[in-house]
Amino acid sequence: xxxxxxxxxxxxxxxxxxxxxxxxxxxxxxxxxxxxxxxxxxxxxxxxxxxxxxxxxxxxxxxxxxxxxxxxxxxxxxxxxxxxxxxxxxxxxxxxxxxxxxxxxxxxxxxxxxxxxx
Length: 118
Hints:
By secondary structure, this protein is mostly beta strands.
């Protein structure tokens, strides 16, 4: 299981490569994505704009198949989320495909803003 840390109030990102059968998604496959969601407990983070939303894909300098999840500005209670689910949507998969990393979910420790004293 992948384990990541998010710092609220900061720009740290979780950088992942989406793979199908062990191979990173192609640029064409990444271009076909219409939405990606990440579920932190009962909090759903949704991105439909690959360049401006909290979950981004196909940006300048990104590796093939890479997504970047930047949720430091989101309202997510600080704690360890042992199972963060990613769901990827495209025109052929309008109900989405629940994605996993190495056959499992991502564990994310959301930490309070260290500069806010919370």
